[in-house]
Amino acid sequence: MFLDKRAAARTAAVPLQRLTYLLSFVAPGVLVYACFVLAPILLSFGYSLTDASLFATRTRFVGPDNYLRLLADPSFLTSLKVTTILTLIIVIVPNVAGVGVAVLLDRAGWLYRALRSVFFVPVVLSSVVVSVVWMAMLQDEGLINRLLGIRVGWLSDPDLALYSIGFIISWQMLGFCSVVYLAALQGVPQSLHEAAAIDGAGSWTRFRKVTWPLLAPALTTNTVMLLITGFKAYDHIQVLTAGGPGLGTTATVAFNVIQVGFTANRTGESSAMAILMLVIVATVSAVALRLLNRREVDL
Amino acid sequence: MNKAIVLATAALTLAACAPAGSQQPVANGKKEISFLVFETPNLTPEYWDAAIKRVTDKHPDIAVKKLVAPSAGERNAYAKQLLASGQLPDVMQAIAPSGLAESGNLYAWSKEELKNYAHPRSNPLGGKIYQLPYNSQPTPLVYYNKKLFAEAGVDAPPKTYAELLDVSARLKAKGINPFVVGGGGKDAFAAGYIWIALVGADVYARQPDFLVKRRAGQVRFGDPAFVKATQKFADLVGKGYVDKAGLSRDYPSTEKAFLDGKGAMYPMGSWFAAAADAGADAGKPPFEIGVFAWPTDDGQVVVPSYTGGGPIVNARSRNLEAARTFALEFNQDAANNDVLVQSDAAIIAINGYRPPPMGPVYNATLEVFKAGKAVNAFTVETGDDSLLPGVGDKVFALAQEIIAGKTDGAAAAKALDAEWVKAGGR
Fold it and tell me: Which of A85, A179, A286, B314 has the highest count of CB atoms within 10 angstroms of its CB?
């Protein structure tokens, strides 16, 4: 009986020891994630339920007031609209152009290898650098207008600035999309093209019926990445327009979070914006991922 | 063994999470302080480095870690970000003390420490002075291209608003753009100078405490005087006197546009005189630059201006004594101020200070400043009479809308009142 108890204790101790040992490997990642992702989200949610200000000596619990006020605030609703338009541009343009560029670059030879690098260069550039360069070119008296012989306020016209920013971010993301599509294209078996050709399919039909379906995983990756890029757009806007010209014409939600938090000092309200944005991004990304994954399975 | 791994992991993670402020403040036996600055075409990295060195040469026990704000226009928001992350610098140059001071983050200068200043009671917050009031800046004056004026047959700067309209019409008739403005990119503030000038001339000249009353809810931006001033701005745009291209130019490009002769008048702060004189020394621009105060309806000379701009000190600095010493020395060092006068056309407000010999644009600026009636410069105030947090940015955004021709005086004033309420005002 005594021996049985000792044996049972030993068998219980081993998994505990092993668990501790395994936890020591998991702990760094979990702790870093908890410190830098979970804790800030939880803190932000906590702040969003208060009237916290950067300089307030006292903070009151206000419940859902910040959220209710935001949903009736025209400038927040405008920033949601701006974010949606910008995200649509950023999801559609690099995806469409990326497929085209990838098809053009899907050839052997040093020139095409070199061109792949050229298209990828903007991706590795800092968005601030990209913005400064484009800002110089898009000034009313800048290179683009001079080359085209026109006088268009690419960044100075409140009706046009958002689309200019969308184009610039799309240009920067084009290389990323192209590389992902190119990798997918190179995984398409040549035998399928040959079989389709024997069946009488022309090049467009082969692309539509063979290539495009097999690019589905790449489309999923690109779309989700571009959705996130669009929703969190901040740095290009800060450099190119600072949310203007005018009241909020290019101010995304991410931009407003910083402005309201660090210029207007309304930390509680800006935290509520950030949480709403988190919910929107998570929902849209999850839905997009689910739809695109289902499409992959169906295909 | 396992315990050791767990402990080491925890220690490493905690070390990674430790704030920067917990670092040892003494470096090589010196008291280390951080100093937040900002760079402009006038205030270059070389200027800051040399100015800091002059002070540390005198106080070898102080080591200075220079921090640079992302841009001049973003320096206040950047200071708040540093505060939020527990890294408020020990000394900060030209950061608005409003908000920081009331929450107990700033050191209030004593009467003794302020005894050398010409205007020691500038921009009080709750009766205390947090920012060393060492520099007066007329904001804006109107700098003009004498050659383009001559081409339009204008031989003297306008003295009344009616004359300004006449000069603008004559310039435009000759195909010359009357006003160069900025406001592009991150430098939205550069869109606001015509509006600041008009508010100074038409509102503050009659109601110097307008913003104090606005804080008390006794006046509104929608009141007739403010709307009239704003509508004048919109009318200048409507007549085609303001170059809309400015909305695509950042601040340095705006300055360059005027120096390149892309317009006849440039409403800008007095610091522009430094660039104008420096350009003249280098043989560029190929024209003379004059200066006048924005004209009022009746010809009274009114100069919107601001005296302050000096360092503020973090009251919770680990090396408070060193921070205070550095700030005062940096601010009162004659050689530093000479360089500041030469590089940024500063009008030093320290008793007994004599500026070095300067160029004609600086001297003309000083003359206009001394001859005019000083009023606050709208949006630039930093004391109890300042705009509520965040409203300044809305003023500049609305100035952009006016320049773009998207709004008029009444609508802009109404929008400003709405932003005021949103910012917590009455």
Answer: B314
